[in-house]
Design a protein that fits this description.
Blueprint: H1 2-23, H2 33-52, H3 67-82, H4 96-126, H5 183-194, H6 197-211, E1 220-222, E2 227-229, E3 291-294, E4 300-302, E5 308-313, E6 319-322, E7 325-328, E8 331-340, E9 346-356, E10 363-366, H7 367-371, E11 375-378, E12 383-386, E13 389-393, E14 395-397, E15 400-404
Parallel strand pairs: 3-10, 4-9
Antiparallel strand pairs: 1-2, 3-15, 5-8, 6-7, 8-9, 11-12, 12-13, 14-15
Helix pairs in contact: 1-2, 1-4, 3-4
Length: 413
């Protein structure tokens, strides 16, 4: 891998040097008509060569139109890396000196980027991570990363199975005696955790599970404070519909907590039990085809593959870590939502990363996904704000904040 990358960089350096020599014959524009035609042809040939090697100042998708465009791009690169203020209109005809400087700074920047890419790949290849999360056995893996989409990597720098609960760096209790700790990776993780309180919470939860023998935390009722102590809700906690909410043995720990099933621990205060009818299928949930906002979720989830485009199937056994639970996923794709505009009509937003979980009771958009579009949710007014202006409305249906509402009796648009 490394040798191929270096070979590609060296080849582009050599071809760029040859291209730089070609510019020398194009410094002065000719005065005769025939000379002008030859000069333009040479400029186009040089531009073609630059497109082939993807020189830093070239956009290969644009048509070959004007020589000034290429010089302008070189000037942008030169000004960016040197803090210069040279403008195309101030140059007149290009000079060899400016072209030389542009090439020099552009190639230096590309060389540094290639070195950085190599260093990141080496770090990722050495990072040990879990390959078999289903058996709860941590197996170190020191080979190259598997092929596929690596956009969902753990904060340790590697896309591995198990997520936070299976990372040797985030959960030291899982480390085997032969595990070698890389100081750079630990420092990077410390910086990330220092600025993310929510991620810190999940890491501490995973460490506690590892110390206690992977015992799943439960929700308890505190007799001392007379308050309900809730662990983060499972992914399927939507409008009071939980995995245990409709079980006959569900116990409620507080009169004010009728929306969430609470399983008391052995030390909890005894409370009267309530019974509920059998749990209905997810397809009968009133918001099964709708999209709701979740402030606690960090990922977007869809339960219907027909709503996803550019779908990429997940690897067998692939799971995501959500609210203290590992949940199996079938793949990931893009989803387009139709949100009612604040004035009239609708606004359309495409979310590029939505996971497919058919067992989910509704479709969920994480609040941080909206913030990625510079959209703010004003909870008090039930409105989405973009650039300090009201943009779209948020509806309250079945106790949830709904972005895109589709009743069950209607087909998904």
């Amino acid at each position: 891998m490394d040798s191929q990358l270096w070979s590609r960089v060296d080849d582009r350096f050599e071809r760029s040097w040859k291209l730089r020599q070609t510019w020398k014959s194009l410094i002065n524009a000719p005065t005769t008509e025939l000379g002008t035609q030859l000069w333009i042809r040479n400029v186009m040939a040089c531009w073609n060569e630059a497109c082939k090697i993807q020189a830093p100042f070239v956009n290969p998708t644009s048509p070959i139109r004007e020589f000034k465009e290429s010089v302008g791009r070189m000037l942008d690169v030169y000004n960016t890396h040197t803090g210069g203020t040279i403008r195309l209109k101030e140059l007149g005809e290009p000079t060899l000196e400016v072209i030389e400087m542009c090439f020099q700074h552009s190639l230096q920047a590309e060389y540094k980027q290639a070195c950085l890419e190599l260093e990141v790949r080496k770090d990722n290849a050495r990072c040990a991570h879990v390959k078999n999360s289903a058996s709860k056995t941590a197996i170190p893996f020191n080979g190259p990363e598997p092929e596929g989409d690596h956009s969902h990597a753990c904060i340790c720098g590697v896309s591995h199975a198990g997520g936070i609960p299976g990372c040797f760096y985030l959960v030291p209790e899982l480390r085997p005696p032969t595990f070698i700790v890389r100081e750079k990776v630990e420092q990077r993780i410390e910086r990330v955790l220092a600025g993310d309180r929510r991620l810190n919470f999940y890491v501490e939860k995973a460490r506690a599970k590892a110390r206690n023998g992977n015992v799943t935390p439960v929700q308890t009722f505190s007799a001392e404070t007379s308050e309900v102590v809730l662990s983060p809700p499972h992914m399927e906690v939507v409008a009071g519909w939980t995995r245990d909410h409709y079980d006959n043995s569900t116990t409620i720990g507080s009169e004010t907590s009728t929306q969430t099933g609470i399983v008391p621990s052995s030390t909890s205060t005894p409370v009267p039990a309530r019974t509920y009818p059998a749990k209905p299928p997810a397809q009968l949930h009133p918001l099964h085809k709708s999209w709701v906002i979740s402030a606690s979720s960090t990922i977007c989830v869809c339960n219907d593959i027909s709503r996803l485009t550019d779908f990429e199937p997940a690897e067998p056994g692939e799971k995501i870590f959500a609210h203290g639970q590992e949940v199996g996923v079938l793949g990931v794709g893009k989803a387009e939502l139709r949100i009612e505009s604040y004035e009239d009509g609708y606004q359309y937003v495409t979310f590029p990363e939505v996971w497919l979980v058919p067992e989910y009771y509704t479709n969920v958009i994480a609040l941080n996904a909206l913030e990625g579009f510079d959209i703010t949710w004003v909870h008090r007014d039930d409105v989405l704000v973009m650039k300090n202006e009201p943009w779209c409305k948020v509806k309250r249906i079945n106790g949830m904040h709904v972005l895109d509402y589709t009743p069950l009796q209607k087909e998904i648009m």
